Every structure is written in C-alpha cells, then in structure tokens.
Amino acid sequence: MTRVLLTSVFKPCAVDNAYTRKEIVPDTFHNQLTRYQGVFSLRERQYSHQLHIIAANLEHPVTVLDWPTLERYEEELKQGYDYVGISFIQPTFLKAKKMVETARELSPRSQVIIGGFGTMIEDIESILAPDHVCQGEGIGFLRKLLGEPEEFCFRHPLLETYEFLGTMGLPARFIASLYRILGIYPHGNGAGVIVTGVGCAEGCDFCSSGQFFTPRRISFLRGGAEIFHLMERYERELKFKNFLLIGDENFFSDPARLEELHARLQAAKKYYPILLSFGSANHLSRLDPRFLSELGIEVVWIGVESKFRPYRKNAGADLPRLVRELHRYGIKTVLSSILCFDEHTRENIGEDIDWHLSLNPTFSQFAHISPAQGTALWRKYQAEGRILNSIPLEDRHGFKQIWFKHPHFSLRESEAVQRRAYEKDYAELGPGFVRWIRVNYEAYPNLLDSGSEMLRRRAEAIKSHMGHYRLLLRAAEMLAPTGEMEGKIRELRKEIEKDFGRIRIDERVLAAAFGLLGKGQELKTRYFSDVIQPRTIVRDYN
Predict the structure, then answer these.
(1) Last residue of some domain: 374, 403, 438?
(2) Residue 421 — φ and ψ, nearest 5°?
(3) Which residues pair with 280 in a beta bridge?
(4) Which residue, 271, 176, 177, is CA-closest to 231?
(5) Which ranges in 392-482 belong to alpha helices (H)?
C-alpha cells in the first residue's frame, strides 16, 4: 500500500546557524508573550498539530515525524515512502530546501510534497522543484492526490502535543510532584489540543492564515456537541481536563456552536478550562462575558493591532470595557499589537504602546508588521518597491527587525522600539504569571456570588489554586529585578493570604527553594543558554 511521511522541519531551533535564526522559537510564551521577562518567562513546547490532523484523516498509512533532527529525518527516508510531505513557514525556507534535497538523494522514488505558509513564497515551485505544492487545507489536497474519496467523516486524534514546562527555572513536572506531597493543588503540565478549524474570514491585509485557506475559514468541528464529546474522550482516555482550541482564529464567530457547547457542559455539570482560544473584538463584544466564563474560557487572544490602524475586526468594539469585563469573569487576555505601521512615527509610536498597556492585558505581544509573501500587504509593498530583497527569508519574521523601507524607522530603530515595548510592558504591568494570578484572585468573589452553578465550580477551582499562588508569589518576590516590582508582588500575596490563609512554614521553605532554583536559572541563562529544544515525536496513523 502507498505509504506517506509527513514531517515538520528539523531542529535545532532558536539558534543562529546556516538554516535558521535564534528568534525562530517554537515557544509562544518565551518568544512572544513573556519576552524579556527573564526568569519569569513561562516556558512551553509546541508541535505540528496540523500534520497529525491531516494524517488522521487519510486512509493510507501515514507516519508523522515531528521536530526530527536532520539525521533522524535521513534515517526515516530510508524506510522507502511513496510520498514525503514537508511543512514549513517562510523563515524556515532553508530547512525545507535542505529536506527536499535530502529526499531526492536518499529516497529518489519518493514524490515530494511541500505545504504550509512557506508555499506562498513567489516561484516556490521553481526554487524547490517539488512534485506537488499544497496550498490551503491539506486533508482534501492529500485525499485527492492519494485517490481517496472526497467525502469523509472528520476524525480528530487525541494529541499529546503540547507541554507546559514551567517558570522561574522550575520544571512543571517537578512542581506537580512536590505539590502532591504537600497536599497543594497538583498543577499538571498536560493539555488536550483541539483543532476546531483553520483560517479566518476577517480579511486583514497582513494575515497569511486568512489568505492561505480557501474559503478563508474552514470548520472541522462544526457543532458544540462534537467539541464536547472530544473533551470527554480526552478526559476518559488521557485524563486531560484542560484544552487549547487552535487553528480557528475566530472561534467566537459561530454563536450556535458556542450555545451547543454551553448546553452540553451545563447538562453534564462539567468544567473544562480552555487555556487558549482566539477571537476578534467585534465577535467577542456581542457575547456575554458571563456566558464565555461558563464555557470555561481561561485565555482569549485578541488582535488589537493599533489605535492608528482600525481593522474591521475591531470596528465598534469598546476594547477597554471588553478587557475589563473579561477579567471580571476570570478570563485572561492576550492582546497583540503591531509595530511599525506606516502611521507610526518616532513621535507617536510610544503613544500606541501606552494605549496597549492601558488596556491592562494579562499577556502582550508586540510584533512588527510583517509583509509575508502571498499577502495583500506584500503585494502592496512590492508594488511600491519597499521590500528589502537583500534580507534573506530566515530574517523575515516579526521579532527582531523590519525588512522593508519604512518612512520613519531604520531597521535598527525598529528593533529598539520593539524591545522598549516589551520592557515597558514588563516593568509597568509585571510578570505575566503574576497578572494571571491577579485576574483570578479579583474574579473569585464575582464568580462565587454569581448565582451560576457553572461559575461556582470555576470559583472553587480558583480557590484550590491559592496555595500554589501564594507559594509562587513568595518565590517571585525573591527574584523581582526592582524594588517596585517586588512590592507589587508582595502586596498581591498579602491580599491572597488575608482572604485564603497565611502561607505555611513548609510552603515558606519550598518558596525559598524555588527562589534559589530561579537564581540558578538566571545564572545559567546569563552564561550559557535558555533554549529548550522540542522533543522528536514519531507517530503512525492508519
């Protein structure tokens, strides 16, 4: 039978070498949301969920090779696959190029497929010379290529492809083990990944996702009942009760699906925390934050972009009120802003950063405007002769410098602006995980007194974390880089102790140990590196 290999690009990641750059990190927190927060940065590992989703929905045998070394990829090629599919993004182009060349050398009878946002590079077919280019949704493309029926029943695999690794140099598994011994809430590091769909229909000119998929938004799990049954299956088979909803970049644009999920959760008396979801302000503003909290939404990512560039997705939204109300019901916010729009000048970009901070997000992302190839923005800048073609693809990402001619900023100035934005966010609002704790602490009485059984269960879950919170805050006081930040952390800890009990002697000892471990992590980072490579995952389907 025809055999298929689907693979991500190879590691190592987050290093400067012939194939990649140190800013290309498969860690959304450390690279994007808690950037420049030092030892307080949250750490995670992310994997190629899309490859597993595609593999599970084909009829032929498929092997997924997720984050291999180049040597491990070469070893797998020798197994003799009929098709080799390589997924990549534009900054990992050189890795994809090397993998195509290696497949031609070691498995010449294999047909090579390339997929992912990297295929939006102009003339990619002539540059890499693959046998097939998959642009858009991959399941339908591969089913057609393999001669499988167009109609099929979508299958969502159980994905153990997300790992929370901890903070302050403290491995999550180590923390969980100690907490179980002390009788504190056992904070696990596992979460079930649910890919509800792909794409977005808002039509932002910079967005690769919205312009890569046709149609622009594709739902895999169309009903709330499907999502609920998948959650139950995760709990039953893997003991996971926390979830990430990814892929669909506007999960809240389908009210009927949300209502059905809410009804199922209510009927079953379940509380499943959704640790990550994505939504635009226009859709979120039409929904009751109380309803969203009952759904279990813990974190929602909102692209606010810029006060100087109003996009359709933010039209009519009262962003300060929206964030405030979400926090009131315990829903943490990731707000992402874009730097170096044409409207930004040396005089006003600080105003835009201050506006972002005034919204009081739990986590912040400050990315440069990125005219990726294939987007409307790329076509505009290309027509205006503004793309700096001397800058290689591996340096074209949102987390160092711009790669186009800006009317006001040089490349080095853009890098300095981004760093200042992140450092100001950290200095003024504090570490991200401390903000998380504050949102939960301040939401607790409102949830408890809401009269909603679903919200009461959520309040009980927050209360069970309080021993964990006061311990981490005590350790964080030891590691705060300034007296002002230390004072704010101490104030929050004392508020929690006043309402939920004083920190115990054994917790003080443990907090001191955590603080020492954090100091050790600071020294390790200063003299060595804080890079954490993803594990290699090999999984067979069908």
Answers:
(1) 438
(2) -65, -50
(3) none
(4) 271
(5) 411-429, 432-448, 453-464, 466-479
Secondary element (H or E) of residue 111? strand 111-115
Q: What is the mean pLDDT of each successive set of 10 residues along the chain, which is 542 residues long?
A: 96 91 88 93 89 97 97 96 97 97 97 97 95 95 96 93 77 68 55 92 89 81 95 93 90 95 96 94 96 97 95 93 98 98 97 98 97 95 96 94 97 98 98 97 97 95 90 94 97 97 89 90 86 92 93
What does the pLDDT read at residue 176? Answer: 67
The whole-angstrom separation of Cα 178 and Cα 510 is 9
For residues 32-56, one letter each, b for 16 or more C-beta atoms within 10 angstroms of the residue's C-beta and e for the rest, the string is: bbbbbbbbbbbbbbbbbbbbbbbbb
Q: How far apart are the C-alpha atoms of 452 and 314, rounded to whole Å? A: 30
CATH number of the domain within which 31 lies? 3.40.50
Both tokens of 102, joined, read 């290696």
CA 70 to chain centre: 25
Q: Which one-letter DSSP state was computed for residue 29?
A: I
- ω into residue 215 within 30 of 0, thus cis? yes
CATH number at residue 321: 3.80.30.20
- 503 within a domain of the structure (yes/no): no
